[in-house]
């Protein structure tokens, strides 16, 4: 990972995204445990956005059929903004990524897998 000069010596923010079951959680856990050693500082914070949406109630509607919240993009972005723009060192895991501001991330990893077998 290369650090962007505009980051003012902060750690990079990393987004791990992909459909359910591709290994996002496994990769994030591995990154969280390995990256602090590489940087030799306080390290990275792993944020499971789906859990955060539930715990912080970042949704307006609940999908009864699938028993999941229908998250509100504005509420999520408003909640994450201070963390993403000031702290740095965030590993964010979520299945969607098109609503995040590009400036938040220095690395985006899209995981895919072959589901035709």
TrEMBL record:
Q: Which SUPFAM superfamilies does its entry note?
A: P-loop containing nucleoside triphosphate hydrolases
Q: Name one Pfam family in it.
A: AAA_18
Which keywords label this protein?
A: ATP-binding, Kinase, Nucleotide-binding, Ribosome biogenesis, rRNA processing, Transferase
One of the entry's Gene Ontology molecular-function terms is:
ATP hydrolysis activity
Choose any GO biological process term that the UniProt entry carries and state it.
rRNA processing
Gene Ontology cellular component list = cytoplasm; nucleus
- What is the protein name stated in its UniProt record? Uncharacterized protein
């Amino acid at each position: 990972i290369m650090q962007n000069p505009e980051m003012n010596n902060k750690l990079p923010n990393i987004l791990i995204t992909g459909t359910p079951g591709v290994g996002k959680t496994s990769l994030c856990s591995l990154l969280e445990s390995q990256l602090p050693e590489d940087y030799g500082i306080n390290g990275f914070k792993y944020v499971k956005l789906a859990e955060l949406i539930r715990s912080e109630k970042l949704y307006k509607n609940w999908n009864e059929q699938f028993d999941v919240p229908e998250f509100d993009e504005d509420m999520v972005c408003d909640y994450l903004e201070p963390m993403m723009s000031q702290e740095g060192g965030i590993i964010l895991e979520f299945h969607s990524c098109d609503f995040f501001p590009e400036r938040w991330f220095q690395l985006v990893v899209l995981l895919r897998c072959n589901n035709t077998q």
